[in-house]
């Protein structure tokens, strides 16, 4: 078996040291996206790679970058931009593991960590920088030539979760980051995504210059047409807004899911915090993940969930993209997202690598049009979930959950939850006013 798998990766053009690293990570056969993209990237092509989450996209860009780096090891060889801190850490882990035998230097540049420490790391010219656009842009604008000067010699730029990075949310910071890198003709640009959007598709028409190979686009299984896997069951529960917490508790403790690992997605940080406290008060092993948490707490929550120390993770969409959490059996859309593609990314946390999983959506009267848009996008009708019934919810847990919610709200008010975010928002407004 090892001969066959070694020759498989060898035939893609990877060196023996990297094949050995992959083998040590128990990765012995290249996936479709890896077979499709690695040879073209090694030949010097810019690349757009589309494949479902969990299909090995990180190795599809990391392996050829590491191969070329090993031929000419130099500082600041590649920059990988990704939308969330957790995803940046996950990508950095893979780069570090793959390059462990080669003294590779990887630097993570994300918010929530010490800017001074990051600047010192960047001054040491790490080979690969894995960053969120906002924090890298901050260094480019504020940290001086000694810190970021090496960026102008980078050979690779990767946009991971490119569909999200190419939205207006990241436009300004992304522009600052790209402006510090070599021009397109002097670097390779690699875009990877689970969703091929119009913005990504438009880049397929990019004209290559200066003798570079043409931009290469590779999509696994027509990504857009296979929006969700066939092993994912999509169900809904119609719920009055004021009893959502009670239904959530009943669903998590019903016979079908009482032992299941679950991610609950919400649209707002305040909702995430309320639910975390309510479920904790109801003796459910729960962790949360949202932007108002200090970075160390976010990292700890993710580790607890991966280790099954927490059975339930409540998250905003910082956890909806790319995170490799293989144990998830249930995804609950407690709040329905306005963008159908966000629903696809959230649901992609379960039913991975051929396993089955459930995605259950809580639908209030205000959500009907959003659900219709989602069903149209995934080309599939949701079916009604029969695991929780009105009378059971009211009889068993409504009063207990109401009491737990009241206690949670009182504790949050006492701790001034949300005040930091308000003061940051006010500071930004004041700064804008000052500049004008």
Automatic annotation (TrEMBL):
What are the recorded GO MF terms, alphabetically?
ATP binding; hydrolase activity; RNA binding; RNA helicase activity
EC assignment: 3.6.4.13
Region entry Disordered, spans? 413-436
Q: Which catalysed reactions does the entry list for this protein?
A: ATP + H2O = ADP + phosphate + H(+)
Domain Helicase C-terminal, residue spans: 247-394
- Location of the DEAD-box RNA helicase Q domain: 7-35
Q: Which keywords has UniProt assigned to this entry?
A: ATP-binding, Helicase, Hydrolase, Nucleotide-binding, Nucleus, Ribosome biogenesis, RNA-binding, rRNA processing
Q: Where in the cell is it found?
A: Nucleus
Q: Any one Gene Ontology biological process term?
A: rRNA processing
PROSITE patterns named among the record's database cross-references: HELICASE_ATP_BIND_1, HELICASE_CTER, Q_MOTIF
Q: Where is the Helicase ATP-binding domain?
A: 38-214
Q: Which GO terms describe its cellular component?
A: cytosol; nucleus
Does the keyword section mention rRNA-binding?
A: no
> Where does motif Q motif map?
7-35
Checking InterPro entries in the record gives:
DEAD/DEAH_box_helicase_dom, DEAD_box_RNA_helicase, Helicase_ATP-bd, Helicase_C-like, P-loop_NTPase, RNA_helicase_DEAD_Q_motif
Q: SMART domains given for it? A: DEXDc, HELICc
EC supergroup of this enzyme: hydrolase
Name recorded for this polypeptide: RNA helicase
Tell me which species this is from.
Answer: Zygotorulaspora mrakii
Output the lineage of the source organism.
Eukaryota, Fungi, Dikarya, Ascomycota, Saccharomycotina
């Amino acid at each position: 078996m090892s001969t066959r798998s070694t020759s498989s990766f060898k035939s893609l053009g990877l060196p023996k040291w990297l094949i050995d690293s992959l083998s040590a990570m128990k990765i012995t056969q290249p996936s479709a996206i890896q077979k499709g993209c690695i040879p073209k990237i090694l030949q010097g092509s810019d690349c757009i790679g589309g494949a479902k989450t969990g299909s090995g996209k990180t190795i599809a860009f990391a392996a050829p970058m590491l191969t070329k780096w090993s031929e000419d090891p130099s500082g600041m060889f590649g920059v990988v931009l990704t939308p969330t801190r957790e995803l940046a850490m996950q990508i950095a882990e893979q780069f570090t593991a793959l390059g462990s035998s080669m003294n590779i230097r990887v630097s993570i540049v994300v918010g929530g960590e010490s800017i001074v420490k990051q600047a010192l790391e960047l001054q040491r010219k790490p080979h690969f920088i894995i960053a969120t656009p906002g924090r890298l842009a901050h260094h480019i604008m504020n940290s001086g030539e000694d810190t970021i000067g090496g960026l102008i010699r980078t050979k690779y730029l990767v946009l991971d979760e490119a569909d999200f990075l190419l939205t207006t949310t990241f436009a300004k910071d992304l522009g600052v980051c790209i402006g510090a890198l070599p021009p397109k003709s002097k670097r390779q640009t690699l875009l990877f995504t689970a969703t091929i959007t119009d913005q990504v598709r438009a880049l397929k028409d990019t004209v290559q210059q200066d003798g570079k190979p043409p931009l290469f686009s590779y999509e696994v299984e027509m990504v857009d047409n296979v929006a969700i896997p066939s092993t994912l069951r999509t169900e809904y529960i119609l719920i009055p807004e004021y009893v959502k917490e009670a239904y959530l508790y009943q669903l998590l403790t019903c016979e079908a899911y009482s032992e299941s690992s679950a991610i609950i997605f919400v649209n707002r940080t305040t909702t995430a915090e309320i639910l975390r406290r309510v479920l904790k008060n109801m003796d459910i092993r729960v962790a949360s993940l949202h932007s108002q948490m200090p970075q160390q707490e976010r990292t700890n929550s993710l580790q607890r969930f991966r280790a099954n120390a927490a059975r339930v993770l409540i998250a905003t969409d910082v956890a909806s993209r790319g995170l490799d959490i293989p144990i998830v059996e249930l995804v609950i859309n407690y709040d329905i997202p306005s963008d159908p593609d966000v629903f696809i990314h959230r649901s992609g946390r379960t039913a991975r690598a051929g396993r089955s999983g459930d995605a259950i959506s809580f639908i209030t009267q205000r959500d009907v049009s959003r659900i219709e848009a989602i069903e149209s996008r995934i080309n599939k009708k949701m079916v009604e979930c029969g695991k929780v019934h009105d009378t059971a919810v009211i009889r068993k847990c409504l009063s207990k959950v109401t009491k737990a919610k009241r206690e949670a709200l009182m504790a949050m008010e006492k701790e001034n939850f949300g005040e930091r975010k308000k003061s940051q928002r006010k500071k930004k407004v004041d700064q804008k006013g000052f500049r004008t």
